[in-house]
Amino acid sequence: MSRRQAIRLGGAVAGGVAAAAGTATSAGAAAPQQAARGSSGEGPVVARTRLGALRGSRKDDVTVWKGVRFAEPLTGRYRFAPPRPVTRPWTGVQDATQFAAMPLQLKSPLAKDNSGPQDEDCLF
User: What's the predicted TM-score (pTM) here?
Assistant: First the structure.
């Protein structure tokens, strides 16, 4: 399944999305119903999607949500299966101000930086 197909099927918000004026939608999420931000135009921003609320950040005229799951984990019986869209809502406000773990990788002198957290569950 291509990412475009997953988006059309209605997955969750893709991670690492940045958009001017906080109007972005991504990977199948409903458009944020409401975004609240500080009067200064900087600081936390909360977007409410059909799966739950996400806390991103805003600086200058750019709003960013990082580390947001766009597919269910590919573990167990789904290890080699195509990604499945996120369909389970979450409670509370999910923090989306930092990137999630990257895929498992060997250390390499050619890699710019792969010293961050790594995990098999990396569909963010």
Answer: 0.57
